[in-house]
Write a structure and sequence with these properties.
disordered C terminus; 6-stranded mixed sheet; 3 helices; globular; disordered N terminus; 22% strand; alpha/beta
């Protein structure tokens, strides 16, 4: 059995993630049977490969955890994209998170998702209450806002570019 994506003619997806989330997105589901509603922009612009792969792996891990632990009856996966950012929201109606699971170092799946987002200078949150389901939210800046965030972290001037001179090296 597999996660069933309601009314999605693109299912099953290709097994190779690409920078264009659709139609190879969402990733192949883990074993189990669970209805999932997936919302992806029809005209999404290509994402940087490292962002697309991170989102692919986060959805894959989240679905695995939901099937294994959440006892959910429904899952919603939504991808939102603007020119400046991409957001992913995964919600289930399962048993929720036990107290302290969000920050437990032994929660390898949650820590892995958090590290993938952190590596892209993004924001990751997971919250749930026992008996009330769980929500995972990911926000990753794209384009100029991503460069500005990296510059702040590296303490560079706001208009600096790590790639300055790569396209036109000095002669």
């Amino acid at each position: 059995p597999a996660v069933r994506f309601r009314d999605d003619p693109r299912w099953p997806p290709s097994s190779t993630p690409s920078s264009r989330i659709s139609p190879s997105w969402p990733p192949a589901p883990p074993a189990g049977s669970l209805p999932a509603e997936v919302r992806v922009p029809q005209e999404a612009a290509p994402l940087p490969p490292q962002v697309a792969i991170a989102l692919f792996r986060i959805v894959q891990e989240a679905l695995t955890n939901i099937v294994r632990y959440a006892k959910a009856r429904n899952v919603e996966v939504e991808l939102l994209q603007t020119a400046d950012a991409v957001s992913l929201v995964i919600t289930d109606d399962g048993v929720g998170l036990p107290d302290g699971a969000q920050n437990n170092r032994l929660s390898h799946g949650i820590n892995g998702m958090r590290q993938r987002v952190r590596a892209l200078q993004g924001e990751f949150s997971i919250h749930g209450r026992p008996g009330k389901g769980t929500t995972i939210e990911v926000n990753i800046a794209l384009g100029p806002s991503r460069n500005a965030a990296l510059n702040r972290e590296l303490q560079l001037p706001p208009d600096a570019s790590l790639l300055a001179g790569v396209d036109n090296p000095p002669r």
